[in-house]
Amino acid sequence: MSLQTSLSIHRLTLIPLTPEHATDAARLHMIGQPGSFLTSLGADVLEVVYQQLPRSPVGFGFAAVDPARPQELLGFVSATTSVGALFFEMGTRRLPAFAPPLLRRFFQSPGLALRAMQTVAYPFLHSTAPDGVTPAELLSIMVRPEVRGVGLGALLINALKAECQRRRITVIDVTVAAANDGAQRFYVRHGFTYKQSFTLYGQPMRLHRADIAARAEQPF
Fold it and tell me: Does residue 142 contact residue 186 with C-beta atoms inside 8 Å?
């Protein structure tokens, strides 16, 4: 029996994303976003990202596990309450953890350094949030390929919305490649609407936003 057919969405448990999930999270990210900038940095850099993000006061997320197999990460969602603050922290206080794997990748592929600078600049250049509103940013949502289609993505999105509401955050942004029609349909189904287009890494991107001022559906 496959993992998908044996999995019941009702018996899954969502727990806070922790540094202990970093290895599995990096692996799922590599599978789920081939060709993206972060994936191009390599699994070792991504593992540091997912080690450090839950430790940051502006980073948070949820991990989905089956209590029958608690050691297996089935999916996760990660977010930040401030992209700018997160990037600043990663480039200063967290830099010792990032520097060794990043420098190795930049040495192997110097063009990645320019893309890294574009990544740091984009939240300051493309924000359309109303005055006085600081949106959360959905950074990544990944589900193991063999358990897609059972509602795990919806469960993770609802958990993120509920946590943002608990933190009194009323807006969530997510950036999607314009060519990724599947991801855009997923976000639209879950309350995100298109806000603007821009270019990043020489590719057209689309920013979608969810207004969660209304009570979020509780996933638990």
Answer: no
The 10s digit of each residue's pLDDT in 188-206 is 999 999 999 988 777 898 9
Residue 19 tokens read as 């540094």
Give phi and psi for 156, each to the nearest 5: -70, -40
The per-residue DSSP string of 155-188 comes to HHHHHHHHHHHHTT--EEEEEEETT-HHHHHHHH
C-alpha–C-alpha distance, residues 73 and 54, integer Å = 16
Distance CA 121, CA 132 (A): 21
Which domains, and CATH codes, for the chain?
3-211 (3.40.630.30)
Q: Nearest to residue 211, comparing CAs of 122, 136, 102?
A: 136
Look-up of token digits 């942004």: 173
Q: Identify the band that residue 61 occupies on the pLDDT scale cut at 50, 70 and 90.
A: very high
Cβ atoms of 76 and 51 closer than 8 Å: no
Give the β-pairing of 203-211 and 171-177: antiparallel
**Dihedral, 201, 123, 164, 51 alpha carbons, nearest 10:** 60
- Give the angle 129-194-211 at the CA atoms, nearest 5°: 55
Joined tokens for residue 136: 């959360």
Contact in structure between 51 and 19 (CB atoms under 8 Å) = yes
- What is the tens place of the pLDDT at every residue in 38-55? 888 899 999 999 999 999
Pair 60, 54: CB distance under 8 Å = yes
